[in-house]
Design brief:
Structural class: mainly alpha
Strand order of the largest sheet: 2-1-5
Number of helices: 15
Number of domains: 3
Largest sheet: 3 strands, antiparallel
Distance between the termini: 35 Å
Helix content: 55-70%
Number of strands: 5
Strand content: under 5%
Order of helices and strands: HHHHHHHHHHHHHHEEHEEE
Shape: flat
Radius of gyration: 36 Å
């Protein structure tokens, strides 16, 4: 809703700007036409016997320009534009609070961990010089150099793939094939398939067939359908772009395999595919608006906000930011924590520990399950780990 309101305000400003610009061009064209007529009249008088009085021609032009009244014509549209422009910043200030420090909490950070995440982010992006500079200025130990060398290898492979050179990628995949198999990755087959298509597209049918016998045959037992499709491509050697299998030449195939290699490379390094810093910032952007709203309402309880262990308002994040299970007690409507874990009751239903403690009068009596008629003994409830 907020974005819709802001977009509507922006559209109004853009519309007024277009109207003002169009009106300005129209007035300028009118002025230009009158000036050109006057110039033509003066120039034509030089080519004939009749002479035109320059002063009278200019006086006539002055009268016509006065009738056009350019300032009066532009005044109304410019006034409307100025009004829309003056209101737009107010809309932005209303919905976008520039002071995000209101949602800040004094939390102790492990400086070394934060620096490690930032330095690793630079290396992930291939910004090795910046990463080195950051590590030096942050006075971080040389242990980060190992991470740098690993990502340098990955970027060398990716850079080679951009130039259609699969040799580094194939060497890495072959070397790490025993580690890739448990992950269920078919990266090596995808790389060999790309190489096979490259050879075929160059018109070397015999070379492609020999490559298939050497490198694709070992995958036949588990990937027969894919290999059969590649074998049919032999009939279209040198003209694969005009065949039913022209999609195999799409650059998107290279992008997908490059992405898969990057994912598997990070996985073997024990690193996430996405940069932790990027994920943290993206999640923070989504979670910031409700926290700012809360602090605007609870401006007088800043100290209480600083001492809270849990977020005071629900913060909805997209699924890509949900990395573990979340349980909300159906009785208290509160999210479970380490101090208040979900508890499995004898009837099979689940409540949080504090709700069970309250309903059982601190474990002194049994109680009815809120979802079924079973009697529950709190001593028989067990912590539930998702």
């Amino acid at each position: 809703m907020e974005l819709t309101t802001i977009k509507d305000a922006f559209d109004r400003v853009a519309k007024k700007q277009k109207l003002s610009s169009s009106k300005a061009r129209e007035v300028i064209d009118q002025i230009d036409q009158e000036i050109q007529k006057t110039l033509q009249k003066i120039q034509s008088s030089n080519d004939c016997e009749s002479q035109v009085d320059y002063k009278s021609a200019l006086a006539e032009l002055k009268v016509k320009l006065k009738d056009i009244a350019p300032l009066s014509q532009l005044e109304s549209t410019q006034k409307e534009l100025n009004g829309a422009l003056s209101k737009y910043p107010k809309h932005l200030e209303k919905f976008f609070n520039p002071d995000i420090s209101k949602a800040y909490r004094n939390i102790d950070f492990d400086t070394h961990t934060v620096n490690e995440i930032i330095g690793s982010h630079f290396y992930r992006q291939g910004l090795f010089e910046i990463g080195d500079c950051f590590r030096t200025e942050a006075k971080e130990p040389e242990s980060e150099a190992a991470v740098k060398s690993q990502f340098q290898e990955m970027f060398q492979i990716v850079e080679a793939m951009k130039h259609r050179n699969l040799e580094p990628a194939l060497n890495w995949a072959v070397t790490n094939s025993d580690k890739l198999k448990p992950n269920g990755s078919d990266l090596l087959l995808k790389l060999h398939s790309l190489q096979f298509v490259e050879i075929l597209q160059k018109g070397n049918r015999d070379g492609a067939l020999q490559y298939a016998r050497t490198y694709l045959a070992p995958f036949a037992s588990d990937h027969m359908a894919e290999i059969q499709k590649l074998m049919v491509c032999l009939l279209w050697t040198g003209r694969l772009d005009r065949s039913p299998y022209s999609h195999l030449l799409s650059p998107a195939n290279w992008d997908k395999v490059t992405g898969e290699l990057t994912r598997q490379f990070c996985n073997l390094l024990g690193q996430s595919y996405e940069s932790p810093l990027s994920v943290t910032i993206a999640a923070g952007i989504q979670g910031l608006p409700p926290l700012l709203k809360f602090m605007n309402v609870m401006a007088g309880k800043r100290q209480e906000w600083q001492s809270m262990k849990q977020l005071p308002v629900p913060v909805e994040l997209d699924r890509e930011f949900q990395f573990h299970s979340i349980f909300v007690c159906p009785v208290s409507k509160e999210q479970s924590t380490e101090e208040n874990p979900p508890m499995l009751m004898s009837c099979g239903h689940v409540l949080c520990k504090q709700s069970i403690t309250k309903m059982s009068k601190n474990g002194t009596k049994s109680f009815k399950c809120p979802y079924c008629p079973s009697d529950v003994n709190s001593a028989q409830c067990r912590p539930l780990v998702f």
